[in-house]
TrEMBL record:
Single GO molecular function: G-protein activated inward rectifier potassium channel activity
Protein name as annotated: G protein-activated inward rectifier potassium channel 1
InterPro entries with a match to the protein in the record: Ig_E-set, IRK_C, K_chnl_inward-rec_Kir, K_chnl_inward-rec_Kir3.1, K_chnl_inward-rec_Kir_cyto, Kir_TM
GO cellular component: monoatomic ion channel complex; plasma membrane
Organism whose genome encodes this protein: Upupa epops (Eurasian hoopoe)
Family per record: Belongs to the inward rectifier-type potassium channel (TC 1.A.2.1) family. KCNJ3 subfamily.
A UniProt-annotated Pfam family: IRK_C
GO BP annotations listed: potassium ion import across plasma membrane; regulation of monoatomic ion transmembrane transport
Residue ranges occupied by any Potassium channel inwardly rectifying transmembrane domain in the UniProt entry: 8-148
Sequence ranges assigned to domain Inward rectifier potassium channel C-terminal in this UniProt record: 155-320
Catalytic activity: K(+)(in) = K(+)(out)
Transmembrane stretches, start-end: 45-66, 120-143
Principal location listed in the UniProt entry: membrane
Amino acid sequence: RRERQRFVDKNGRCNVQHGNLGGESSRYLSDLFTTLVDLKWRWNLLIFLLTYTVAWLVMASMWWGIAYVRGDLHGARDGTYSPCVANVYNFPSAFLFFIETEATIGYGHRYITERCPEGIVLFLFQSLLGSIVDAFLIGCMFIKMSQPKKRAETLMFSHAAVISQRDGKLCLMFRVGNLRNSHMVSAQIRCKLIKSRQTPEGEFLPLDQCELDVGFGTGADQLFLVSPLTICHEINSKSPFFCLSQRSLRSEQFEIVVILEGIVETTGMTCQARTSYIEDEVLWGHRFLPVMSLEDGFFRVDYSQFHATFEVPTPPYSVKE
């Protein structure tokens, strides 16, 4: 089996990295929310912790600064003195007051007095700033957790694609399945053939994308994905595999990218699962083993045979031949 660089891995990850952005990198900051959602979990958690920690320390320092300027740190223990914030006499007590106020804990031991206009203004600023930070970071974490990427982990593709005859026509086929009982609403499948080619004008296209027809005209690309389905691409005069034979398959270099899209029934969010097949993963003259069986009152799917194939008599010639 030849090892070569894939455009899309079997798990759906695209092997494309953007470099030398120059001044275009500022576009990421203009859409900061999406940038944070796209970050990996470790960076999200680090930004989450650092933002709250820095905000807490800054706001606690401002409360401590008000108490220091007013002289409350020395007179707070005197019962006849009216401080800005009662029972704030050092930085830890100022930090605890801020946490109690921000988290609305309300122990009642520390509170703002009416003789402190600067404290009232700072309290209003703290409430506004806390609401903004909470809405931004908690919203970002919620969107990050609710992304339907993990739903794609329970969508299966066969390890290999096969080429054999179906209804007297040579077809390229692969299998898809859904491991969950919840359905994929409006599931649709698309296939792209990625192959380098040279145009008649001499232009070389290293990753030219060509659409593979998997039933656009007949509606076969709209899937009712309750049980494993075999997706079929008929090789005819309009297919890019029109000249592909069993012998030429050994020397070809191409990649078939499969994209399955649908709406997750439980959340209503759009999910996309991807995989790819290179030429070494296309088996000529094979067919998938059946996985459905009728039990007492229901149909059973045997996923142990999901990837299994067996050989069938298939002409080694191309459709053109």
